[in-house]
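quick one, 125 residues, struct below
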Amino acid sequence: MTDEPEHWYEEDAGPLVRLYAVTRGRGRAPRRELDLTTLLVDARTGTRRPGPEYDAIVDLCRAPLSVAEVSAHLHLPLTLTKVLIGDLLDDGRLTARAPEPTASEPSTDLHVLRAVLAGIRRVQI
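---
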């Protein structure tokens, strides 16, 4: 042991400690409607929150992007990303919607599967 006092710097604490401070310790998003596939887009209205994480999310969402994609682009845990997104939704800065379901007929799916199977068989020969 040394007699020197310990000094802590933000860089030593790491990014998760900063996120803990930004989210004020919230580890769960209060919005249950947010799932991995919820699409987000910049509403171009609402108040601006200070912080690089909030700015990065709004910049990413200039075009529709899913919650999972935002989390991956920012290299942040999904739960914390949802908290930050929830804040931006509450402020009216982002809008969220469920992804549009794809309408495909069963016959089309079967046709695609048969084409894939035929391609696999050609590769195996």
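The mean pLDDT is 77.
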